[in-house]
Automatic annotation (TrEMBL):
The lineage of its organism: Eukaryota, Metazoa, Chordata, Craniata, Vertebrata. It comes from Apteryx owenii (Little spotted kiwi). GO terms for biological process: endocytosis; endoplasmic reticulum-plasma membrane tethering; lipid transport. The keyword Translocase does not apply. Residues 1-166 form the SMP-LTD domain. Belongs to the extended synaptotagmin family. One of its GO terms (cellular component) is endoplasmic reticulum membrane. This is Extended synaptotagmin 2.
């Protein structure tokens, strides 16, 4: 079969990948594959497992241990920039799940075939000309590790390839996959960890700075770092979707944070079938692959219920019946299938005269282009502070998306789903509508499938969606404290080094978690605020976000809160805990008071002035320092309407006007998105002696030089990693100096 598989892959590259890359960015409009040869060495299947328990009678589940080591030749070029690059060899090793469902009583007996990886496979690519490729505008925020991670995550659940074998009607259920359950992870504390930090050249053993990385499929969470403590208390809570629990595990690794390379402190793998059986596990687990150490976890398996009869009970259990927040532990899951839109307006000005940016109009008129050409529509979906974007469909007013999205919902009685169709080309709105989730509570099976009329759009503009709400229920009662049970702990089949290389460094970029607090005996009593819509955070089933304009072309599936996924860059930053275990009434009161004072949703004691995300890299070929200003989050508000922030940069000591770089002003927001690229002409040896001066300012503060300052950042550039580059969130401070514990 291999020659025919190769024909299919070549067709996939030329007919699907090549047009998608061309349409993703103006700089890539001349992208093409000049040669595609996958090689003669076929894929090997080293073993097959067939599941006979915990499976539906109308499906067959197979796990294939696959291995591919191919000497392939894939050449590409971008003619506009005279850029050529390629791939010489590819290796991929992992467990591919094949699901044959639904089984039907007519030939061909199988309705469809679904393929995906349960967890991120081990992937290695031998590039040629990668440096040339990464110097192309629009790609210069990437690195080889980010590219590998993006590709790997597209292969992992909930991303899947579904091959239909029968009619559309029978496949409707496959297009609307309902997760098997939700795993709520209370990442509480550890004891007796190994001390990795040493003094006096290793003679004196010190302590460690432990943090944890938690993975369920392609959903990754990272805890905060507890400084100098072998018995750390994190008290953090995360929620993860579980699509396939036979064979899927909860994977946890602990590390000691160090300036150069983080030390391994132990690992743990727990079979989710055991958690589903018990519903609630609250135990100490012995860490694997180390001589000592224990980890305290509380795991809850939440079932998705298609009725609202237990909703009030669930809201009371997570304290959502009294507070007015939009964040915290989830009481329900919103599942959405975005199908298509019809009759979108050709001319955005006709229905939204204020929505089109003046600059875009002037540019179009100047170039002689017609503004009433077909739009490039995408859909922005948001629930509370969480937002996700669909793919862009180019030059059509009848777009078909066929994408799935999920949102964790704190309280469906008070929250709304907001849907906006936007034109990516003209940066304006094509229509919107708001659906109170309380309407779903009154619908049969908590489900609506219909065409929704768009407001502020054409007279017949509609969007077709299927939307379902599922209440999260623990169902069974917890066992008594004297019940002796230990969850099945599995050892990883990978070596420690292999797993660390493929698992540890790539985590979603998120704001810091809450301050360390005592472990309570009572349930969670307060919640951290999450980031605003402008952050474009994604749910846990998200695709990775690219750190450049290419992110607009990637599927927004959330990755964890990019999520808004959630943002998947090679930089260590903690994932925000959904709720912190704060049992002291005084601490809760102080936290709420602090949040009210700041009015910006940041965590207590962490980044009070907010944060800024930058990509910094030096291009030796162009002899320039390249800085991408992505976005800010949780800035302070100058007025009730927020702030009008922009970013100003100097490359110190040069503070001349000609050396100044400025972004556009983003009006009335505390979470502005800029995605603007700047460069400074300077050699690598010279730039390593310089400091990047970054200031976030409020454009309204013209009466005083200091009045408009929202926060500063000073970044010394004396790093050996500068040629490779990095993307990172930085804390803003009053004078630009790095605060204690900044990431």
């Amino acid at each position: 079969m291999w020659p025919f598989i190769c024909q299919f892959i070549e067709k996939l590259f030329r007919e699907t990948i090549e047009p998608a890359v061309r349409g993703a960015n103006n700089h890539l409009s001349t992208f093409s594959f000049t040669k595609i040869d996958i090689g003669h060495q076929p894929l090997r299947i080293n073993g097959v497992k067939v599941y006979t328990e915990n499976v539906d009678k109308r499906q067959i589940i197979l796990d294939l241990q696959i291995s591919f080591v191919g000497n392939c030749e894939i050449d590409l070029e971008i003619k506009r920039y005279f850029c050529r690059a390629g791939v010489k060899s590819i290796q991929i090793h992992g467990t591919m799940r094949v699901i044959l469902e639904p089984l039907i009583g007519d030939m061909p007996l199988i309705g469809a075939l679904s393929l995906f990886f349960l967890r991120k496979p081990l992937l290695e690519i031998n590039w040629t000309g990668l440096t040339n490729l990464l110097d192309v505008p629009g790609l210069n925020g990437l690195s080889d590790t980010i590219i590998l991670d993006i590709i790997s995550n597209y292969l992992v659940l909930p991303n899947r390839i579904t091959v239909p074998l029968v009619s559309e009607v029978q496949l409707a259920q496959l297009r609307f996959p309902i997760p098997k359950g939700v795993l709520r992870i209370h990442f509480i504390e550890a004891q007796d960890l190994e001390g990795k930090d040493t003094y006096l050249k290793g003679i004196v053993k010190g302590k460690s700075d432990p943090y944890g990385i938690i993975r369920v499929g392609n959903q990754i969470f990272q805890s905060k770092v507890i400084k100098e403590n072998l018995n750390p208390k994190w008290n953090e809570v995360y929620e993860a979707l579980v699509y396939e629990h036979p064979g899927q595990e909860l994977e946890i690794e602990l590390f000691d944070e160090d300036p150069d390379k983080d030390d391994f402190l132990g690992s743990l793998m727990i079979d989710l079938i055991e958690v589903e059986k018990e519903r609630l596990l609250d135990e100490w687990f012995t860490l694997d692959e180390v001589s000592k150490g224990k980890l305290h976890l509380k795991l809850e398996w939440l079932t998705l219920m298609p009725t609202a009869e237990n909703l009030d009970k669930v809201l009371t259990s997570i304290r959502a019946d009294k507070d007015q927040a939009n964040d915290g532990l989830s009481s329900a899951l919103l599942i959405l299938y975005l199908d298509s839109a019809r009759n979108l307006p050709h001319n955005p000005l006709e229905f939204n005269p204020d929505g089109l940016k003046k600059a875009a109009v002037q540019k179009a008129l100047k170039s002689g282009k017609k503004i009433n050409s077909n739009p490039n529509p995408l859909v922005l979906l948001s629930v509370g502070h969480k937002a996700q974007e669909s793919k862009i469909r180019y030059k059509t007013n009848e777009p078909v998306w066929e994408e799935n999205f999920t949102f964790f919902v704190h309280n469906p009685k008070r929250q709304d789903l907001e849907v906006e169709v936007r034109d990516e080309q003209h940066q304006c709105s094509l229509g919107n509508f708001k659906l109170p989730l309380s309407q779903l509570l009154e619908s049969e099976d908590l489900t609506m499938h219909q065409r929704f009329h768009l407001s502020n759009s054409g007279p017949n503009s509609t969007i077709n969606m299927k939307i379902a709400l599922r209440v999260l229920s623990l169902e069974k009662q917890a066992r008594s404290p004297d019940h002796q049970h230990s969850a099945q702990v599995k050892r990883s089949s990978l070596s420690k080094d292999a797993r660390k290389s493929s698992f540890k460094p790539q985590v979603p970029v998120s704001p810091p978690a809450d301050s360390n607090k005592p472990v309570p005996a009572s349930p969670v009593t307060d919640s951290d605020k999450k980031t605003d819509v402008a952050e474009k955070s994604q749910p846990p089933n998200a695709s990775p976000q690219w750190p450049t304009d290419l992110s607009r072309s990637s599927s927004s599936l959330h990755a964890s809160n990019f999520t808004y996924s959630p943002s998947h860059l090679s930089v260590k930053e903690p994932t925000p805990s959904i709720a912190s275990d704060i049992s002291l009434p005084i601490a809760t009161q102080e936290l709420r008071q602090r949040l009210r004072q700041l009015e910006n949703g940041t965590t207590l004691g962490q980044s009070p002035l907010g944060q800024i995300q930058l990509t910094i890299r030096h291009s030796s070929q162009r002899n320039k320092l390249i800085v991408v200003v992505h976005s800010c989050r949780n800035l302070i508000a100058f007025s009730e309407e927020g702030s009008d922030p922009y970013v100003r940069m100097y490359l110190l000591p040069d503070k001349r006007r000609s050396g100044r770089r400025k972004t556009h002003v983003s009006k009335k927001t505390l979470n502005p998105v800029f995605d603007q690229i700047f460069d400074f002409s300077v050699s690598l040896p010279e730039v390593q002696r310089r400091t990047l001066d970054v200031a976030v300012k409020n454009s309204g503060g013209f009466l005083s030089k200091d009045k408009g300052l929202l926060g500063k950042l000073l970044i010394p550039l004396a790093s050996e990693e500068l040629a490779k580059g990095w993307t990172q969130w930085y804390d803003l401070t009053e004078d630009g100096t790095r605060p204690h514990g900044a990431s």
